[in-house]
Design a protein that fits this description.
The complex is a heterodimer of chains A (354) and B (336).
Chain A: H1 2-11, E1 20-31, E2 34-46, E3 51-55, H2 62-69, E4 78-87, E5 90-91, H3 97-103, E6 108-111, H4 115-118, H5 125-137, H6 141-154, H7 160-163, H8 173-185, E7 191-195, H9 203-220, E8 223-228, H10 231-237, E9 240-245, E10 248-254, H11 255-260, H12 265-273, H13 315-319, E11 325-328, E12 331-333, H14 346-353
Parallel strand pairs in A: 3-8, 3-9, 6-7, 7-8
Antiparallel strand pairs in A: 1-2, 1-4, 4-5, 9-10, 10-12, 11-12
Chain B: E1 4-19, E2 24-40, E3 44-48, H1 55-62, E4 70-75, E5 78-79, H2 85-91, E6 95-98, H3 112-123, H4 128-141, H5 158-170, E7 176-180, H6 188-205, E8 208-213, H7 216-222, E9 225-230, E10 233-239, H8 240-245, H9 250-258, H10 264-269, H11 296-303, H12 309-313, E11 319-321, E12 325-327, H13 332-335
Parallel strand pairs in B: 3-8, 3-9, 6-7, 7-8
Antiparallel strand pairs in B: 1-2, 1-4, 4-5, 9-10, 10-12, 11-12
Helix pairs in contact in B: 3-4, 3-5, 4-5, 5-6
The chains are: A alpha/beta (354), B alpha/beta (336).
Chain lengths: 354, 336
Amino acid sequence: MERELSAGVNTAGTSVEPVLSVEGLTTRFRTSAGHVHAVNDVNFALRPGELLGVVGESGSGKSVTMMSCLKLLPMPPAEITDGRVMFGGRDLVSLSEDELRGVRGGEIGFIFQDPMTSLNPVFTVGFQLIEPLKLHMGLSGRAARKRAAELLALVGIPSPDARLDDYPHQFSGGMRQRVMIAIALACDPKVLFADEPTTALDVTVQAQIIELVKDLREKTGTAIVWVTHDLGVVAGIADRVAVMYGGQIVEMAEVDKLYDDPRHPYTRALLETLPSAELSAGRDERLRSIPGQAPNLRKALHACPFAPRCEHVHERCLSQNPPLFDVSPGQQSRCWLEVDEDADVSHQTGSAAA
Amino acid sequence: MSEKLVSVSELKIHFPIHAGLLRRRVGEVKAVDGLSFDVYRGETLGLVGESGCGKSTTGRAVLRLYDPTEGSVTFEDTDIADLSDGDMRRMRPRMQMIFQDPQACLNPRMTVGAIIGEPLMEHTSMGAKERQERVRELLDQVGLNPDFVNRYPHEFSGGQRQRIGIARALALDPDFIVCDEPIAALDVSIQAQVVNLLEDLQAERGLTYLFISHDLSMVRHIASRVAVMYLGKIMELAPVADLYADPLHPYTKALLSAVPVADPDVEATRQRTILTGDVPSPANPPQGCVFCTRCPLAQSKKAAGEDVEKCFTAPPDWRSIGSDRFVACHFAEEAK
């Protein structure tokens, strides 16, 4: 159902004003061994009500990108050296801490990976749920408690009124993540950042949470940025997907497009490393692996960060970092193959051969 | 099917709970509660389940890193559950383990050469030079540069550290390796490298693996048979193709339907079985079938007015269905 909904958004897509737009965001960390260039020139626009999946491996900069948007990073060592994050006519990067406090948890919600470490163990769940309601919505104690119970019911926690007085340790992992979602949704945010929200959970619980989020999207219409390393989760839940590598977005596409016709060599390689979903494949077929390791981001990017692991690498890749090229409507790829036709055209036949 | 290498029978591991001023024993966590299965020579038996179901405890008990509370573990013809420490030590070279977290299982103060050489020092009479040669050979086999022998673990990436762990496990030429979530801590692109390495080594050396994982799609790729655990018991054990195509136990069905598939078209159309509620405490498992509190089959049957009393009162037998399939469900025949 949400698939149709998103298709509607997409066709009208270009004219719709984005709720959040990230422009040229660049974050680096100062360390004793020099700078680490964690996020390099990241651009994306989040449309109202859409779910943008951000995939990448550890160290690809996906979490730091999300944290940078709300300046949740310790500064220093982190510093946002360039870029804007436009939200509601304001640039979040240039807001003061006080102004940001009004945005965080209010208009923009955040769900973290590990619900145990992001809930405060010495306060009841109710206290933690009521706090943002009083702060951002100006509700009185009684009204806030009523709303808190409604929120717990919304995320599927049985006997919500009684459970408000329980502490986080009295909830299971999946229930705690539901509480986190309830807190994030408490003030009807326009945008929700979810950083690996199901990674710490078991598959059956993950399935519960995914169904819950799908359901809540229909009810609330919140735009979501869902950061994950799991290509399976993204396939089931996202409208659009951004693939990150070496601190930059290397490919961006509608979800169907990305899985049917991935253009960037990294995206293609990543999809091929997954065990085939077909039963007949079995173990006779070797898994394709990507040789080498993730790049070291100690140096600023002067070449394509994927070049050392890329099978289509050519001269230009080693000296110039490619920009994002528009390859088809709504799809962009950061690869020189898109323009260097003579260098290597195997990507056009690649999907058939691979 | 070839001969049995490891045979586990009615294995139970209960951990005592002590409480109160006098630390009296007030109960026990039934981490593993009556498992019976065989591992055949040269196969990969996948052991899957959610966190807390007892799969790692099982893996450790099979190597007798825990002493079983009850039951036996037979390795070839020897029951290792009753061996003396000295006899057990002589068995150890035959069975090894690869751990989940390659960071935590390598001593940060030892060089790679010392880490891989330690089992050789303990269990063989090799001289220093010979040992060094063997270590270099092992590094080469797992795809690391033999010149790295004097480096420390922190100088390697996660995938490379896992290779060091594999080299150490291979040092004594074991027959049987328990792989406890060997790829869970690795990135997707590195997982494939390690899985390929494990498969190559198995083909070269005829190794037998017990492959413990919660990643059902990777287990489908690597395993020849799969056992599904829930709350200390095996729910179902079957050859990999049968299990994934035609699961018999309601828990297996729910688990498989929860696995995300990296294909938007499949995801858009599939019907998920969403389990309600949480896993009960292993200190106080339900009477009857351990899965009865969440079982969608029992719930639908009850709603249809059928008699499901036995699900809640009598634990289902661990029985064989068909040639090489085992299942613990009162209604398994109906699923067929």
